[in-house]
Amino acid sequence: MDASDPPPTDGRTGQTGQTVPAGSTTGRSPASGTPPTPPPLPRGAWLLRGVTAAGLLLSADVHLFLYVQGYQDIEVVGPLFLLNAVAGFALGLLVLVWRHWLPLLGAIGFSVATLGAFYLSTTVGFFSVNETVGGVQQVTAAVAEWVALVGALLALVVERRRASGRSRKKA
User: Fold this and answer.
1) What pLDDT was estimated at residue 31?
2) Comparing C-alpha atoms, which of 90, 124, 119 is closest to residue 107?
């Protein structure tokens, strides 16, 4: 076979209608037409994702509870508490069901933003709200957000290490 000859084909066509070389894939399983499933995550990664999701869901629960208990009447902070609750629930579920690094990155951003707003409110104030560090709800939310932050960071490290180990083995 000469270098200028086209590669052998198996008759399938890619998304652009071009013939696909034999042995290559177009992102779908040839037998079923469904996308290939990614390799399973190690137990440590699942444990860290579970810890991250627990932190996110607990933080969301606390913010929803405080919203219902009267924070909805605070001009800017009330809607932010509701947004925090919805985002925390959504991210908590995404971290568990979508095996991608984006939900973990979202969990990190969520935790940093929430902790930043909380620490601003306890020091200089946040949209006219001056909070105290004491209190069951405040401490619970802060611990949950730290747990989510550390869990997401560690999960990213574990999953990236595993992914880079797989790519080195292929080379």
Assistant:
1) 60
2) 90
